[in-house]
Amino acid sequence: MKRIQRAAILVTLAENLRARGSWCGETHIQKGAYLLQELLGVPLELEYCLYKHGPFSFDLSDELTSLRADKIFDQEKQPYPYGPKLKPGEMAQKARELSPKTLAKYGQHVTFIADNLGDNDVKALERLATALYVTREGISGDDIDARAARLHEFKPHVPLDEARHAVERLDKLREESEMLLAA
Amino acid sequence: MAKEFHELRDPIHVFIRMDSDERNVLNSRPFQRLRHIHQLALTSLVYPGATHMRFEHCLGVMELADRVYGVITSPGNLHKDVRDIIPENDDKKRYWRKALRMAALCHDLGHLPFSHAAEKELLPPEWNHERLTVDIIRCDEMREIWDAMTPPLKTEDIVKLAVGEKELSKFEQATYSPWESILAEIITGDSFGVDRIDYLLRDSYHAGVAYGKFDHYRLIDTLRILPKKIETTTSTDIELNGDVSDDEQGALLGIDEGGIHSAEALLLARYFMYTQLYFHPVRRIYDIHLKEFLKLWLPEGGFPVNVEKHLEITDNEVTVGFLAASRDPSTAGHIPARRLVQREHLRLLSQRNPDDVKRNPEAARIIYEAACKEFGSESVQIDVYRQKSSESPRFPVLKGDGRIVWSDEESEILGSKLPILVIESVYVSREKLTAAQKWLAKKREALLDVSIEEDI
Fold it and tell me: Of the residues B262, B296, B326, which one is the last residue of a structural domain?
């Protein structure tokens, strides 16, 4: 996927998240893009690793900075200790205009993610994305408790019952996404 | 009686003191190799004074790390909410000071010949100089040094502090305590990492550009460990959704408000050093030619990641290689070697500018592809660098009334958007430059106004 096409998807994701009341900081874009790529198969070509708050792409973090240089993204600063909110910049529309086929193909995927993550705080996003990470890892199989235990192992600050809840929520999203992908 | 402490003269820090354990590291093969790795690659072809080596930079980083450690752990400088992350026991404090100094000394052991110039495309995927650094710190030769110390230093502690959580997480699972995070930040931190402080001062000094100088004495004196979590009732929305996770019990390296002007000077110094020195277009094209040469000249087209093989190759071997290749047309890499040695580097045709980007954010790539078609891809090059997220840091500032605020709230200079650095340059061979300039002047608008035909 070309850089401008990825930019069009990311900025549309931000716009959709914000429209659903999301805080839309970098964590929201990070986890939204992770689910777009790994749950729905949108080829963003971002490399993720498990970092402090779950799956994180340093490539994406750098890309968001350079998209601010291109004015495709902009940010709203927030008081300490919170990170800035992200919003479409003055060149966002240009990015979309240059990527009509991409948006036609993946627009529904973006809407699906925004519908499901729009009202999530960073804690919920961290847990959900880590649940997907441990599921994709495959070590714990499909068993909910085993995956919850693995999530807890990676993120000890997430209690087991909440880890289990995150895995169950992920499984529900997987089911719903299959319908979207089959359509 | 043998000396316990040793002193080295340094043009930036005057004296650098080290103990016998540190001198053993200095005398090791991996560290001595840094005497033959230029800090700024081929920059001396543009700025003749910039011939300094990684060796002295690493000594400087150790010296500065030690000064920072002294300031931030001084009882009078400790914020009440972070006291519990600092070891209480004096032995532990001494241990961590030593680990920090060692990590600072070793933080660049994995650098390839000519430092960053050729790193990206010449190592296997998921490898970089930090990963090589980790392997060297863990190699038998270095472990013997750590084990022989009293008390022995844990190899993994040195690894963690030398490369930092962000880099280590890229290739292995890494969990840092808040204390370890702060210590790693002293060396590798985006805002006040002493790696950065030393290279700005040192590169500026050797290159003869004044832009990199700032009052680092004052800056270091005002560094503080500040809590990430604060009592706030600013907004329910922020409480619920703000971009801070629930394990943020840690701390960040920030400053007392008295240091804000020296922090501003540091960030401005960095900005000007990048624009004037590191991103000089001729310097950048020499990096590209060096990379072209290495791809053709190195066996298998890349550098080895085996520690022993890594230690065998320095700038010297590569320099001998390109000097020889430049004289012999039958040698692999002859053309890029000649570009380096005979100053036949490509010339700048086009640089990123706001008008082009506004018309089409893909301007540079479009111009590059069209120029390749027109003049042949062997005569055209593109250079793209986009500022990393870590290079636009904000940091906490402790106000006189006890509040903690972000640096860009406190300082109008830091809040007023220093430009995000992006390079998008297209180069063309010297003999085709005039024709290419005329061609671009005629075609520029038409090229940029065409919408991209996507292939998805």
Answer: B262
Sign of CA dihedral A51, A53, A54, A60: negative
**Residues in contact with A15: Cβ distance below 8 Å, sequence separation at least 6, in sequence order:** A87, A88, A92
B52: amino acid identity, one letter? H
CB-CB under 8 Å, A69 with B386: yes
Residue of chain B nearest A82, judged by CA positions: B243
Q: What is the SS3 assignment for B4? A: coil
- In this structure, what token pair is assigned to residue B257? 């408000």
CA distance to A69, A101, B87, B361, B453, per residue, from B450 (Å): 22, 16, 62, 12, 9
Contact criterion met (CB < 8 Å) for B386 and A27: no
User: What's the domain range around B399?
Assistant: 346-456
Q: Which residues of A touch B230 (CB under 8 A)?
A: 80-81
Three-class DSSP category at B150: coil
One domain for residues B221 and B350: no
Last residue of a domain, one of B247, B262, B277: B262
B395 domain-assigned: yes
Task: Name the minimum distance, in Å, from the CA of A74 to any CA of chain B.
Answer: 11
A85 contacts in chain B (CB < 8 Å): 243
DSSP string spanning B278-337?
Answer: IT-HHHHHHHHHHHHHHHHHSGGGS---SHHHHHH--HHHHHHHHHHHHH-TTSTTHHHH
Residue count of chain B, please give it: 456
- From first to last of the 456 residues of chain B, give the pLDDT tens digit: 677 889 999 999 999 999 999 999 999 999 999 999 999 999 999 999 999 999 999 999 999 999 999 999 999 999 999 999 999 899 999 999 999 999 999 999 999 999 876 677 899 988 999 999 999 999 999 999 999 998 899 999 999 999 999 999 999 988 899 999 999 999 999 889 999 999 999 999 999 999 999 999 999 999 999 998 765 444 444 444 555 554 456 899 999 999 999 999 999 999 999 999 999 999 999 999 999 999 999 998 999 999 999 999 999 999 999 999 999 999 999 999 999 999 999 999 999 999 999 899 999 999 999 999 999 999 999 999 998 876 667 899 999 999 999 998 888 888 766 788 999 999 999 999 999 999 999 999 999 887 655 566
Q: Is residue B356 part of a domain?
A: yes
In whole angstroms, how far apart are CA B442 and each of A100, B381, B435, B448?
A: 29, 20, 11, 12
Nearest-angstrom CA–CA distance, B438 and B434: 6
Query: What one-character DSSP code corresponds to residue B111?
Result: P
Shared domain check, B204 and B74: yes
Pair B251, B360 in one domain: no
Whether A104 and chain B come into contact, CB under 8 Å, resolves to: no
Nearest Cα residue to B410 out of B393, B427, B398, B401: B398
Domain count along chain B: 2
CA angle (B126 as vertex; B281, B161 as ends), nearest 5:
90
